[in-house]
Specification:
With 115 residues, the chain is mainly α. A hairpin with a 7-residue loop joins strand 1 and strand 2. Helix 3 crosses helix 4. It is globular, with a radius of gyration of 15 Å.
């Protein structure tokens, strides 16, 4: 079961794509918009807009990753606030609740009853 605080945070984040961005970033030290585009198969501007919204809401911040040549690359990473969405638990209860939530959001977008 998702805690009331996490239910509120998930409701605030809202869109499935934003949850998928957070979930992708959770497994890394940070990703550029281009890396997220490649991983998620969305448009550059779609990913960028979701990242800007998540940054504005305090779930992401940015840093500049040095490149071998040229300008540093802007990379998004999770903030402490978004880490709270992914508590470390060994029994996988949160992971299951997260998957159920994603299925529910996807079914709402498709106009179907949730599973």
């Amino acid at each position: 079961m998702i805690s009331p605080m996490n239910q509120r945070l998930l409701a605030e984040i809202g869109r499935t794509q934003r949850l998928e961005i957070l979930n992708s970033l959770k497994r890394t030290k940070g990703m550029s918009v281009n890396e997220l585009v490649e991983k998620m198969g969305m448009s550059y501007m779609g990913i960028k807009q979701h990242c800007l919204t998540l940054q504005r809401d305090g779930y992401l911040d940015t840093w500049r990753r040095p490149q071998k040549m040229g300008r540093p690359e802007m990379v998004y990473r999770l903030t402490r606030r978004s880490h709270d969405l992914f508590p470390a638990d060994s029994n996988g209860v949160y992971a299951r609740a997260y998957e159920v939530h994603l299925r529910h959001l996807r079914s709402e977008r498709a106009g179907k009853a949730p599973l």
